[in-house]
Amino acid sequence: MSTEKHKSGWVSVVGSPNVGKSTLVNALMGEKLSIVSNKPQTTRHRITAICNGDDFQMVFSDTPGVLRPTYKMQEAMMKRVGEALEDADVIMAVIDISEKYFPQELFQKLKHTKLPTIVVLNKIDLGDQETTARKLELLKEQINPTAIIATSALHNFNIRELKELLIKQLPEGEPYYPKDQISDLPEKFFVAEILREKILMYYQQEIPYSVEVVTTDFVETEKLIRIRCEIFVNRHTQKAIIIGKAGAALKRTATAARHDLEKWLAAKVFLEVDVKVKKDWRDNDMHLKNFGYL
Ligand SMILES: Nc1nc2c(ncn2[C@@H]2O[C@H](COP(=O)(O)OP(=O)(O)OP(=O)(O)O)[C@@H](O)[C@H]2O)c(=O)[nH]1
Ligand SMILES: [Mg+2]
Fold first, then answer.
1. Ligand 1: which atom is nearest the Cα of residue 64?
2. Where are the domains of the chain?
């Protein structure tokens, strides 16, 4: 294989919260790297997912959904979106079938960018053919993208086709990462994310949005991997909710996380979880810095 023909590039995945960006990236990767939930604002960082083939390397930046920030953590989340767009070779803009428009700021970027832009209309399993066709037409008119495709990430519909469209737009070049690498984020990050996914799943209202998870220990022994995580909340009342009556809620959450971790790490896992309060951490520069947002 000649290196001249090898294609490499960064694909930034952007769109509103909850439209299925992370589900799409996981489907394109054929592997779950980004956590997914039915609640908006699941992704908080820029998640690198490296998709490798014999003659290409496509580095996805899965980003937080675009929103108007109301606290500092969300400001940091929106900064990640901006950075991902700056670094991109290709923009993959995701909108779902129920959504009327792209967020205004993003819409302007998409309209004026010189980068190849692939628009993905996702969740078409939730709409009828007529709506899908009408939306595709409208998006084509509004944005004039390089290509547009309708998908259902949940049902793996048109994912192979989307992948081909993206690869076509990659610039020629050598790989940025070794071909067996799938992310540049540390294992400890993904461990914390898996636990946060379970918190998104099992707790309601403001709780998932008030939580940060940090992996403090990750020790591999011959028999198992010993992991310790800390869950931080904004207030004492939230700590009580996380733990639940006689610790039942936390136990259920930790057990679900442990099951996923064992699958993901292909090893037996011992998971210890502590809950701590860091008052109003989402607006505190020092805490945000420690948590890797700033
Ligand atoms: N019906 C249907 N649901 C989908 C599809 N793709 C994703 N979902 C669901 O939509 C919800 C949100 O998916 P995510 O992948 O977390 O969305 P996201 O855009 O990454 O969300 P943020 O990270 O919060 O911005 C989850 O419940 C997914 O299972 C799809 O094609 N069809
Ligand atoms: Mg996401």
1. 25
2. 3-169, 187-290
